[in-house]
Each structure stands twice: as structure tokens, then as C-alpha cells.
């Protein structure tokens, strides 16, 4: 099983609306990306300086499934929007 974690920081302009839109867009990928086995998307409530605005946790059967997700047209559409509203991102991929 492959775990894929992404954390994002967003621009201040329209932050609340953009967070909700990205959350909705990401969750919709469950219906369109066959290799995506599960997903959780959370909007941060911590006020710590080191906190990120949004976290994504997803699971795939294997690395090939993650690679297929990465190039899936629906995922690329979400990534394109994220690039217009995010200021930073971090990722961690691992197997269990």
C-alpha cells in the first residue's frame, strides 16, 4: 500500500473560498481516478506558525497507481488550479 500526503499553504486573497474549492475538487477525484483507493482532505484549524492550510492524505495499491494518479487529466486539472492559489507545498510518499 502506498500512502501519499500533501500539505499546502494558500495565498491570503480569497483564502477561505479557495480552500473550500480545492477540498471539493480533490474529493471529486475519488469518482474519476480508478487507482485512488481512499482520500481525506482537511482544512487546518491550528494557529501555529508551522501549520499548513490544507492537508491531503490518499492511498494507492502500489507506486504504479500513484504514478497513474499523478498524470490523470482530472488530477492535472486540480493541480493547475492549486498552482494559481497556493504559495507552498510539501509532499511525502511511502509504502507500508
Task: Explain how this protein is built.
This protein has 96 residues and is an alpha+beta fold. It has one domain: Alpha-Beta Plaits. Helix content is 42%, strand content 33%. The protein is built from three helices and four strands. It has a four-stranded antiparallel β-sheet with strand order 2-3-1-4. The longest helix has 18 residues. It is globular. The N and C termini lie close together (6 Å). The mean pLDDT is 98.
Topology:
Layout: E1 2-10, H1 15-32, E2 38-43, E3 54-60, H2 63-71, H3 73-85, E4 86-95
Antiparallel strand pairs: 1-3, 1-4, 2-3
Organism: uncultured Sulfurovum sp
Domain Stress-response A/B barrel: 2-94
Pfam families: Dabb (PF07876)
